[in-house]
Amino acid sequence: MRNGITIDNYDRKILYELDCNGRQSISNIALKMGKGKEFVNYRIKRLKELGIYNGDIVVMDASKLGFQSYALYLQLMNKQKIPELIQYLKSQPEIWDIYKVIGKYQLFTIVSVRKIKQLEAVITNLSENFGGMIINYRLLQYYNGYSLAHNYLFKNKETIHHDKLRYNEKEITLADKELKFLSVLLKKPRASFHKIAEQTESTLPKVRQIYDDLLKKEVIHFIRPSINSLPLDYLHKHVLIRLNFGGMKKLNEIKSHFLGMKETKALTLTFGRYDLTGRFIFESLADFQQFQDQFYTKFGKYVHSLHADDYFEEIELDPLQAVELLVKEREGVKV
User: Fold this and answer.
1) What is the pLDDT of residue 1?
2) Cβ contacts of residue 138 below 8 Å, gap of 6+?
């Protein structure tokens, strides 16, 4: 590999198990591997030091808490100030993910808000603070999406089916205890139920029940590792597809086509200039070219355009700040 970083089958097995169930114990993973806990802990520490395993995240359906999500693309003029802009974005509770891309737009973020005025404030504040470096922006509204497992790393293993629908706009009301549980879990997704019970001033059976209920309600989809495969020289592509109007009848079929691929990392249907966006990870440029050829062979006559940019940094934030604001609202704290 060009970066000189490789991982072996033991590393992949550990990441696979964490991707299957991010809350399973190290002891359980060690048992499945026929190794000791010390071996697994050492490998996890090494993966973190290499910048491949960046901790764990809770994948949830933000719409269940009343959030609407948008993709905000930023075209920048002064690239030297990008680190400053990213630090600003990371501090904003409405910004849940940030991606650096190579192409017309240099950054895109996922913005999640409960009210349209919050979205207006996000854009206005960006204009006031960074208007001199932002040339243009584009906004797409998410209405149907999936955050998938890292199956591209596990070509020889059974596919992990993390394919629960996100952004389905079926808001539900959570009890105060459920909201507090969620805010604690977001801080440390692998925290033991004993620790969560202490921090939420609840009982162990109660927090177990809350976790099960949040899974059943599909507020929480799953807990998985945040994996950065860029040091392993995988090719990361952010793809935007616009269909001919007559091709909209094929949208769900196209969605199913992509969901069946191990290279698909995330997939979203959108309102705006594009009808579908996705993040795909390939082992080589030849694999990406084959991906395009197969797609155009099957759906080419329905496609107006397919635009693909490289993305070279992925900052997976979580909705912790936004959920903590909801908790404070419930507690009557002025925010």
Assistant:
1) 45
2) 72, 73, 105, 272, 273
